[in-house]
Write a structure and sequence with these properties.
The protein is 83% helix and 0% strand. It is mainly alpha-helical. Helix 2 runs antiparallel to helix 3 and helix 2 packs antiparallel against helix 5.
């Protein structure tokens, strides 16, 4: 984690987005259980691929294209609603959570950066006061 922070990466946003992706994959697993008796093999395979892609994508968020892939997976989950209609609703909820994770994560990181700068400025001021 120290390595991520030294590179200035978005640790808070990554944690939030990874949580959304993993919860979404679990939801896809439950959706597959619901549709398993009524769906054909392709529909089940498609759902399984989406669920696995969601889990794998949680590890790819260190790359910029991983974030774009996460957005595309949100669309894929929504369109899985063509197979099981409740996924229209669940996909929309998770897409909103995905957007929220990005927005709140960015805001949290701005606050962390401001607090860190304030802390460093305060420590520098104390160091200058001691040297006088």
């Amino acid at each position: 984690m120290a390595r991520d922070e030294s590179r200035g990466s978005r640790v808070t946003m990554k944690v939030m987005a990874r949580s959304v992706l993993v919860m979404e994959a679990i939801t896809m697993g439950f959706a597959l259980l619901l549709v398993r008796l009524d769906a054909n093999g392709f529909e089940l395979l498609l759902g399984g691929v989406i669920a696995i892609a969601l889990i794998l994508n949680s590890g790819l968020l260190k790359f910029k294209w991983g974030w774009w892939l996460g957005g595309l997976l949100q669309v894929a989950v929504i369109f899985y609603g063509l197979i099981i209609t409740s996924m229209f609703f669940m996909g929309a909820i998770f897409a909103a959570l995905w957007i929220g994770a990005i927005a709140v994560g960015r805001k949290g990181e701005r606050i962390q950066a401001a607090l860190k700068a304030e802390y460093q400025a305060r420590n520098e001021a104390k160091g200058e006061a001691k040297s006088e």
